Amino acid sequence: MDQQDEKSSDKTELGHTLESTGSENTQQTVDPIQPKRDIGAFQIIALGFNIPNSWLAVAVAFSTALTAGGPVSLIYGNFVITAMYGSAAVTLAELASVYPTAGGQYHFASIMAPKRFNKSISYVCGMIATVSWIICSASVCSVTSLCIAAIAEFYNGYQASAWQLFLISQALNVISLLYNLFLLKKTHWIHDAAFFLTLATFVSVSVVCLARGDKQSSTWVWTSFESSSGWTPVVSFFTGLTTHAYMFGGLDATLHLAEETLDASRTVPKALMSTIGIGFFSGFVFSVAMAYCLPSLDVLANDLVPVYKLWRMASKSDTAGTVFLIIIIILLTYIIAATQQTTSRLLWALARDRGLVFSSQFAKLSSKLGDIPMAALLLDAGLIFVCGCISLGSSAAFNALVGVFSLMQMISFAIPAALLIYHYAAVVLAIIAIVMAVNWFVFAKKHYQGPRIEFAE
After folding, report:
1. Average predicted confidence (pLDDT) for the chain
2. Architecture of the domain whose range is 34-423
3. Which candidate, 41, 363, 342, 349, places its Cα nearest to that of 184?
């Protein structure tokens, strides 16, 4: 194990040179700033799934699929989104096995891009990835505050105002910040605990709702397409994919923690592929279970958290539905802390590469707190606060911001993938050219007579 860890450490030692595979090789060096490697293999796999948390993501984003296709969108959307993110995961896993660094996709882009463009391409990729992570954290804060407000509304008839939701979300932001600053390095076991809790909750919710709820027919569940969006069926179906787009939100989390992971070149790729596998299974099974338990879609349309009402109805117990939602709130609070942890490492990597204003400050690691990027954590929490202020000023603007999260994330994945294809394309074209040349000299030069065109009179 020591030899493996040493080998992995050698690959990611940031004082070493990374060689570009672009058309003109270049060499890039950064300051040898390295955190402690204290995240084990199972912990990084657990964290990698905990942040996207596919079945939970489907649960909290339930309403879009219901209004844009009903059960068909809810079930079959899993296949479309898994195919998209699975392709991205394979590419990222391949690159992470060679370059396991905290910069993740923007480091990959810099390494593979031609020398002339590697700085600009990697910077754009890094900023897109960073902004998407900040939006992700802010959106989880917002969703958690809505879940808390839903319980208060159901039991007390209390409707929280926008500023109260803002205060709840920022309280969660501060709690997560304090946890990351003072407790995270002492409690890595929390990733394992959250992993087992989310899987246990997934099984419990699915079994209880199926066992106690009134069930729809299989024909309705698997073939019924109901849309109240006013769009054509095709457009409605793709609109409904918004629900499933969150299934793998934060797929790249393990990339940005690679420099704190033991034997990262092996465990990070495994974590990426495990996230896809567990995510598809849990998301698909949960979607099918909830589709069988759906009442009339109109019943859930105007609820603050539609899945909360569905759980109360399907379990035939207000208490059971509330307990399920409380566990979801606990898991979401953990996810906020985990997204802060991940985003701070990405900000730290950008600062270490001098991509941010005041980079010298944000690139520092606090030895007193266990070699964590304290300044980057504070910056992340501050930016989440700014996003929260946007929601306070205009919910439409905040929803638009959240709406581009998945798009920005996929763009950051696509940039290194496109560069990877770019390099393979040159090889493919060369092989095709050789085959054509051989065919020309061996056969076509003597026998090919050009096009023969006959015109009918």
Report:
1. 89
2. Up-down Bundle (1.20)
3. 342
